[in-house]
Amino acid sequence: MMLEPLNYLFPNDLHIHWSLMIVMYPYITGLVAGAFIVSSLYHVFGNEDFHPISRLALLTSLAFLLVATAPLLLHLGHPERALNIMISPNTSSAMAGFGFIYSFYLTLLVVEILLVYRTDIIAMFHATTGLRREVYRLLAFGVVEEDDKVRALNGKVVKILAAIGIPAACILHGYVGFLFGGVKANPWWSTPLMPVIFLFSAVVSGIAALVIFYQMAMRFRGERIDQKCISALVRWLWLFLIVTVSLELLEVVSLAYERAEEWEVISHLLTHQLSFSYISLQMIIGGMIPFILLMVTVLMDRYLDRHVRNTLSFVAASLLLIQVLAMRWNIVIGGQIFSKSFRGFREFHPHFLEKEGVLTAIVLVILPCVILIVLNKWLPAFKKGTPDLDSPVTR
Amino acid sequence: MTEPKKMGRRDFIKKACELTGATLFVGLLPFRSPPAQASDHAAAAGEGVVGSVDGKDHLFAYLIDTRKCIGCGMCVKACSQENKVPDGFFRTWVERYEMSELGDLHIDSPKGAKDGFPPVESGFTTTKGFFVPKMCNHCSNTPCTQVCPVGASFSTKEGVVLIDKQRCIGCGYCVQACPYASRFINPETKTADKCTWCYHRLAKGLPPACVQACPTEARMFGDLKDKDDPVRKILGKERVGVLQQEKLTKPSCFYLGLDKEVR
User: Fold this and answer.
1) Which of A8, A93, A182 sits opposite B108 (nearest CB)?
2) Which residue, A144, A167, B157, B175, has most beta carbons within 10 Å?
3) Which of B134, B176, B248 to mutate to test the interface with A (most CBs of A within 10 A)?
4) Which stretches of chain B drop beneath a pLDDT of 50?
C-alpha cells in the first residue's frame, strides 16, 4: 500500500483540537516537577551541592505551578464548568486526576515553602512595619515566636513534606504522560514509556531552568556562582538527558523494528511534517549538541575555568529548554497531524493573537518569571554571598 | 543524646497487625459489593428498565451492507438536517474506495458525501469500487467514555453512547480517544458531539434519520433482544466485520462486505 499518492483524512480529522495551550501545559508542569525534585535533593537527601539553589528551586516550582491552570482554562470549551472534574470526576479518566493532584501538590508546596522560610519570615516580621509586617504575620501562620525545639520540629516536617513531594511532583507530571500514553487510538502517543519519558524530560527542563535562573540571579547580584552547585546540576542534567533521549529513541526504534501499520504514517510524519521540530530541534540542536557540551563539562570538570563551566552549562541549559518544548510540541501537535485513517496529514499553524495562540504561550512563560521575582522580593532565595569581582555589575 | 526506646517483639507484632489491618481495610474499600441499583429494583418490580429509551429492554445494533450502498449521500444530508450538524463537521459520512488489480488505491469523502460523489480522476483503471458509510460505532468497550474526566460521555443500557451537553467541559479528550474519528467539538455548543443514533427519534419508535433516508437499505437498525428482528437474523447468518477489530472496542455497528483496505 503506497502512502504518497493517497492523502485521505477522516472528515472529522480536518480539525486539530488540542492546540498550543496543550503543549504549554505539560511544559509548565514539567518545570514545576523538575525544579521541585532538585530542591528535594537537598531537603530530603541532604545533598549539600544543591544548598545554594534549594530555595530558588522551591520558588521556581511555585511560580510555574501558579500559572499551570491557565493554559487548561484557556483551552476548555466550558471553563466555567471546570470544577466538574472535582465534583463529578470519572475515576477511569487520567484527566480527572488533575484537580486533586494539583490541589494536593499546591498545598504541600506552599506549606513546605512557609516552613523552610519560617525562621526568616519571623525575622522579617520583626524587622518591618505596616502592611509588610502584617503580610509576614500571615505567612508565619500568625505565630511569630520560635525556639530551638520548634525549629527542629519544623526541620523534620520539611523533610517529610519534601519526601512526600517527590512522588507528588512525579504524579503531577507523570499523569500527563499517562493521559497521552493510554490513548490506544493514537499510536504516536500510546506507549507505556510515555509517563517515564515525560517525567525524565520534565526533570531535564527543571534543572536547565535552575541553571539559567541561578546564573542570571548571581550575575544580577554581582555575586559568585557556586561552582560545586553548577557542577552537580550539570552532572544530573547530563544523566537525565541521556535517559530521556534514550527512551525517546527507544520508542521510535521499537516502532521502526516492529513495522506495524502505524510505522508507515509515523515515519512519514517524522521525516516530513516534523522534520524540523523533531530531527533538527529535538534531536540535533536540542539533543546531540547539549549532550556533547554537557559531556565536556562533566568529564573535564576539574580542568575547567569557572567562566567556561558557567558558559557551557548556560548554553546547554538554554538549548535543553528549547528541546523539551520541541518534544512537547512533537508529541501533542505531531500526534494530531496525521489522521486516524493513517493515510493523510493536516497542517497546524497557530496564530499569534488568538486565545490559544503564540502570544498567549509567550505570556505563559514570562508570567511565572515575573511571579518568581515578586516571590523573591518577599521570600528572598539568597543570602548575601561572595561578591564576584569579575562580574559586570561589580566592576 | 538519649537512645530511642527499642520496640520489643510483642509490640512489633501488635503494631504490624494493626498496620496490616488498617491497610487491608482501606485497600479493599473499592471492592465492596455495589449498592443495589435503582434499575434492579425497577426491573424486579416489573416497572420497565430505568435508563432505557422507552422503558423496555433493548440492545440496539446497526448493520451497514456496503454492497448495497450507492454513495448517494442522502443519509449525510438527512443527519445534518435532523441534528443541525454544523458545516465542516460530521456525525455520519460515506467513504468511496476505488482500487485497481495492481493494488492502486484511491479513497475520498468530499464533504463527507453530503452532496454525493463527483467523478474522480484516479489515474488508474478502477476494477473494484465501493462505498463505506461510517458513524459513531456505539462501542461496548468505549475508549471515549473511559477518558471523559467529568462523566459527560456515557452509555445507556441499550448500548447507545451519548454526551450530556450540560456537563461536558469541552476538553476534547474523548475526541482524541476515539479510533474512528467519530467525535468532534461542536463550535456552537463548544462541547463534544457525535452521532446519537437519533436517540430522540428512538424514543418515539422511529429509526435514525440516516436509516430512514437510505434508498437501498444499506443502513439497517435493529434490536438484538427482539427474536424477530431482521438485523439480528442477518448477524446470525452472514459473515460480519467491524472496524479496527484489533482495538477491541466492541462496536455495535456491524459491516457486510468490508475490504482489507477499510480502516
Assistant:
1) A8
2) B175
3) B176
4) 36-48
Task: Report the DSSP pairing between strands B153-155 and B105-108.
Answer: unpaired
* H or E segment and range at residue B108: strand B105-108
pLDDT beyond 70 at A391: no
A141 touches chain B (CB under 8 A): no
The sign of the torsion formed by the CA atoms of B67, B73, B75, B80 equals positive
Report how far residue B86's alpha carbon sits from residue B91's, in angstroms, rounded to the nearest whole number.
10
Q: Beta-carbon neighbour count of residue B24 at 10 Å?
A: 10
- Which of B95, B135, B171 is best to mutate for the A interface (most A CBs within 10 A)? B171
Question: Per residue in A213-251, pLDDT tens?
Answer: 999 999 999 999 999 999 999 999 999 999 999 999 999
Contact of A339 with chain B, judged by CB distance below 8 Å, is answered with: yes
Instruction: Kindly report each contact of residues B194-198 with a partner whose C-beta sits within 8 Å and lies 24 or more positions away, as own/partner.
Output: B194/B91, B194/B136, B194/B161, B194/B163, B195/B79, B195/B91, B195/B92, B195/B135, B195/B136, B195/B138, B196/B83, B196/B91, B196/B136, B196/B160, B196/B162, B196/B163, B197/B60, B197/B62, B197/B136, B197/B138, B197/B160, B197/B221, B198/B82, B198/B83
Residue A27's φ and ψ, nearest 5 degrees, are -65, -45
Could you give the angle at the alpha carbon of A26 between the alpha carbons of A83 and B163, nearest 5°?
40
Residue A367 exposure: Cα atoms within 13 Å on the Cβ side: 17
The distance of B75 to chain A (nearest Cα, Å) reads 15
Residue B173 and residue B166 in contact, taking contact as beta carbons nearer than 8 Å = no
Burial class from Cβ neighbours inside 10 Å (0-12, 13-18, 19+) for residue A340 reads: buried
Please tell me the distance in Å from B114's CA to the nearest CA on chain A.
11
Q: B186-231, pLDDT tens digit by residue?
A: 999 999 999 999 999 999 999 999 999 999 999 999 999 999 999 9
Identify the residue among B94, B104, B132, B169 best suited for mutation to test binding to A, counting A beta carbons within 10 A and taking the highest. B169
- State the pTM of this model: 0.88
Q: Which residues of B touch A17 (CB under 8 A)?
A: 172, 175-176, 184-185
Contacts 24+ apart (CB under 8 A), A364-367: A364/A24, A364/A28, A364/A67, A364/A70, A364/A71, A365/A24, A365/A28, A367/A67, A367/A70
